Amino acid sequence: MNKGREPFWQRLAKWVVATVVVTVALYQGYLFVLPSITVINASGGAVSVTVRLPSNRLDFGRIAPGADNTLYYTLAQQPGDYRYRLQRSGAEVTGHCGRVAENEVHKRVKMTIGSDGQLRCLSNNNLER
C-alpha 49: how far from its chain's center? Predict the structure, then answer.
């Protein structure tokens, strides 16, 4: 018997745990770098929201009252606007808010739908609209 040496399964368990910890840390770091849009539904009814970027289309789907949804998008963007389509109670509202550019590391945009049905945008860069 090998005195002072750990059994194989203990060494394997340490490697598995270390691999999982490193993978989770890398994933969290990746999400920290990517820009994101969060849609917050502060209205009284369910809404469906789609946001078009110059290089992407983000479909947030149905968002229940009081709920929110966050989607991340790629850093490789053409310059342009955030163009949204909001569907609520059979009505559709389209518009734009804020600007998108290439390589906006850790940019966070919050689109809040108020009880009046208006969509307001705020980013960690500045007030968009």
Answer: 14
CA atoms in the 13 A half-sphere facing the CB of 115: 1
Q: Note down pLDDT in tens along the chain; length 129 residues.
A: 556 788 999 999 999 999 999 999 999 988 888 999 999 999 989 999 999 999 899 999 999 999 999 999 999 999 999 999 999 888 899 999 989 999 999 999 999 999 988 899 998 875 444
Q: Where are the beta strands (DSSP E) in 18-127?
A: 36-41, 47-52, 57-63, 68-72, 80-88, 91-100, 108-113, 119-123
